[in-house]
TrEMBL record:
Gene expressing this chain: purD
Reaction(s) catalysed (UniProt annotation): 5-phospho-beta-D-ribosylamine + glycine + ATP = N(1)-(5-phospho-beta-D-ribosyl)glycinamide + ADP + phosphate + H(+)
Species for this entry: Spirosoma soli
Pathway: Purine metabolism; IMP biosynthesis via de novo pathway; N(1)-(5-phospho-D-ribosyl)glycinamide from 5-phospho-alpha-D-ribose 1-diphosphate: step 2/2
Protein name (Swiss-Prot/TrEMBL): Phosphoribosylamine--glycine ligase
Pfam families: GARS_A, GARS_C, GARS_N
Length: 428
């Protein structure tokens, strides 16, 4: 089977690494990929939002299975585009159509969807430039802190927690009047702040059946003890010690089942991953957000724990046969530490030589922002590497992952030294 993965980050390298282990995988391609994916697949110099180039590559390379990594092409409708081409009717696709991808593409859509189908979530209201004055007045009556979310895709930067009324009103003006996030912020969801502990649950669905994959917790802020600005993710851990069996059962009954029933009721053909961002509040799950794809760096701790043939799992998803597969999960703990460029998530330089990768022992280095050039591997993004270790205990997995982060070298390297430590304390 010839397989194409769209994307260029650590998530896509993890997919490629996992798929390449299957005897069902004949030729594997990643578009556009990175220096890591090039070690297990053939990179194609194609932008994943260039639908014509993607469809041409599918024909040229005789692709049987397509896995869409990032959210942007999904929200822009790449699945609909490909399904509308008669000669590609054989193509198996893992990823929702544009309507399904609205779960991530529009915060307002997902909020209304949750309300319709009784999925527990924070109370909220949505405002536009035309209703800005109502929004400002609404904030005056709102408890603090308050969460403001740009409706559309804003590269992970569209969520702001305001601690004071004046900050909240300034942010709302900035988004709606000042167009801080452009079109993505033409609507703003103003939401109740939930106090609790965060985690993510991943669902794989073929449109009818579903499997719940290993849960994970990621670390969003740049600084230790969750300080500083938000990033795409500085590390992740799976499993999550506070997500016991009874809590995960509540997630399945109160979140997963009504979400999938709602999609079916609305006639949305959803074959792919649903990332459910949750807050555990007094033992109860509340949905913070949906994503229409796997998370990054969560994929780098979830996939290593899945013991199934991953090609088999993806084909069953695309063919509506997930009920025929039992997902096997390793009891080991996986921890990933993300090593980032100096200055990230603000201005940073690219093109720094990465060394000591060959010294890593019993750790998988998933490449996020890398480029192979003239015999060297160079930094080519804010998040550079996700260093994943597996062990029989959380402590050992943390130690091995952190050791790898110390070992790898490039100019300006930074990483968080506290990934997983809060969970060790929680377990104690």
């Amino acid at each position: 089977m010839n397989i194409l993965i769209l994307g260029s980050g650590g998530r896509e390298h993890a997919f490629a690494w996992k798929l390449s282990q299957s005897p069902l995988c004949d030729k594997l391609f990643v578009a556009p990929g990175n220096a890591g994916t090039a070690q297990v697949a053939t990179n194609l110099p194609i932008g994943y939002n260039d639908f014509d180039a993607v469809s041409a590559a599918i024909r040229e390379q005789k692709i049987d299975l397509l896995i869409v990594g990032p959210e942007e092409p999904l929200v822009k409708g790449i699945v609909d585009f490909l399904r509308n081409q008669p000669d590609l009717s054989h193509l198996r696709i893992v990823g929702p159509d544009a309507q399904g991808a609205q779960l991530e593409g529009s915060k307002d859509f997902s909020k209304q969807f949750m309300l319709r189908y009784g999925v527990p979530t924070a109370s909220s209201q949505t405002f536009t430039a035309a209703t800005l004055s109502k929004g400002l007045a609404y904030l005056e009556t709102h408890s603090l802190p308050v969460v403001l979310k740009a409706d559309g895709l804003a590269a992970g930067k569209g969520v702001i927690i305001a601690e004071t009324l004046s900050d909240a009103q300034a942010v709302l003006r900035d988004m709606l009047d000042g167009q801080k996030f452009g079109e993505a912020g033409s609507k703003v969801v103003v939401e109740q702040f939930l106090r609790g502990i965060e985690l993510s649950v991943f669902v794989l669905t073929d449109g009818k059946n579903y499997k719940i994959l290993p849960e994970a917790k990621d670390y969003k802020r740049i600084g230790e003890a969750d300080t500083g600005p938000n990033t795409g993710g500085m590390g992740a851990v799976s499993p999550v010690v506070f997500a016991n069996e009874s809590f995960l059962k509540k997630v399945e009954e109160k979140v997963v089942k009504p979400t999938l029933a709602g999609l079916q009721q609305e006639g949305i053909r959803y074959q792919g991953f649903i990332f459910v961002g949750l807050m555990k509040v007094n033992g109860e799950p509340f949905v913070i957000e949906y994503n229409a794809r796997m998370g990054d760096p969560e994929t780098e701790v979830v996939l290593p724990r899945i013991q199934n043939d991953f090609v088999e799992l993806m084909v069953a998803t695309a063919e509506g046969e997930l009920d025929k597969i039992a997902v096997q999960v390793s009891p080991q703990t996986a921890v990933t530490t993300v090593v980032v460029s100096g200055g990230y998530p603000n201005e940073y330089e690219k093109g720094k030589i990465i060394s000591e990768l060959d010294r890593l022992d019993d750790v998988t280095a998933f490449h996020s922002g890398t480029l192979a050039q003239n015999g060297h591997i160079l930094t080519n993004g804010g998040r550079v590497l996700a260093l994943t270790a597996q062990a029989n205990s959380l402590e050992n997995a943390v130690r091995k992952s952190q050791e790898a982060a110390r070992t790898v070298q490039f100019d300006g390297k930074q990483y968080r030294k506290d990934i997983g430590l809060d969970l060790i304390r929680y377990a104690d």
